[in-house]
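Batch job 17 of 40 flagged for manual review because the log was empty.
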Amino acid sequence: MPRLMLSDEFWSKLEKILLQEAIDNKHNLRMTVEGILYRMRVGCPWRDLPKAFGCWNSIYKRFNAWSSSSKWMRIFKALTIDPDWEWGFIDGSYVKAQSPSAGAVGQEDQAIGKSRAGNTTKIHLAVDSCGLPVEFDITGGEVNDCSAAPQLIAKLPDVEVIVADKGYGSEYIQEQIVKKGAKAVIPRKRNSLKGNADMDWGLYSYRHLVENTFARLKQYRAVATRYDKLKRNYESMVAIACGYLWLPM
């Protein structure tokens, strides 16, 4: 039997949310979810799932159906109970898109772009004061942090402080944060006329919280390396990983 990821306590919590999303409570639902988590953890092709989880094709079809209806994103949001919004941290990280992720049929968005590392996808992530993921966006790897930041920041609620590295140091982003009623702790670029005299470097040192979250997410092979052809399926895999970090909370 492959190693499982859901304790009885975790499953009891997750099952309630799955049922709220009108997911059928079939006798093999728990093993279906375990099969999806196994694939997230090891990054294997769907057809290589161990038989202990059931028919690989049935598991993939259920994952794909829940992904196409955005259920995985809603499940993730349902798990993010009472985030600590004293501070918010944002950052982006590249993910290598392997050859199985190429060649999707149809016109659906793939969110794969060219960067220095070749074909890549980028995760733009926001975490709360505890370093738990609360929002994220998926783009092609060619999209820089400043371009993706406004949409990500707009999703955040009444956060008191937003902390980011100097890749987000444009005046437009600084102004957007101030308009939200928050304080921006972001180093300005060298050519800025305002400088960094007002920077809270002590709070900025806690930016490692978002980097730590990326490290936790990327321990799962199907997040650290992209194998899914469609953006929505990779986005769902990231949502599952983010939701799993919330299960012990």
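Reviewer: the log was empty due to a logging misconfiguration, but the result itself is present. The longest helix spans residues 231-246. Unflagging and moving on to job 18.
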